[in-house]
Amino acid sequence: MRNLFNGLVFFLLLISSCKSQDTMIDKTVVKELDVDRYLGKWYEIARFDHSFERGLVGVSATYSYREDGKIKVVNAGFKETLQGERSEAIGKAKIPNKNVPSKLKVSFFWFFYGDYFVLDLDKDYQWAIVGSSTDKYLWILSRTPQIKDDLYNDLLVRLNERGYDVSKLIKVEQSIE
Prior knowledge:
Elements: H1 2-17, H2 35-38, E1 40-48, E2 56-65, E3 71-79, E4 86-94, E5 103-109, E6 112-121, E7 127-131, E8 138-142, H3 149-162, E9 169-171
C-alpha cells in the first residue's frame, strides 16, 4: 500500500510538471462525455508501464460522485498475482472546464492533480482509452475484465494511428468471468 501511495505521488508530480516531447501524438479527447454514464467500475485491460502500478494485476478503477460534486476515484489491484495482497488508492477527480468534460484532473495526494484525458470511448460506454497531456501515460479500460481479441486489436490500430507506440502496452492479467 505504501509503495502504491508513493508511486501515485511520484506520478502526479511527474505529470504535473512534464510536457510531451513528442508532438506527433494525437491527444484529442472525445467531444462528448456523459459523466453519469462513465461512473462505475472499469477494468484495466492494458497500460504503459509505470512504477506506481508495476507488478499489479487485476487492476480496476471505480468512479462515483462525492458529496462535494467531485468524483471519487478508487484504484485497486493485486500484487503479482490475482491472489496477491490487495493494493488500493483513493483519490478524487474534477472537471476544470465544464465545456470539455473529457479532460479531467485526478489527485491522489493533496492538491497535486494530473491529467486524465478520455481519448476514445465506445458509444455504449463499454471501453475507453485514457491518456494525458503527455504521451507517457496510456490505459485501455473496459467494463468487463476481458475483451475480445478483435476489439483489442482494433483499439491498438486506433492508438497506432494517433502515434502511440503500442508495443509499450502491457496487457493486465484479469480474472475470467
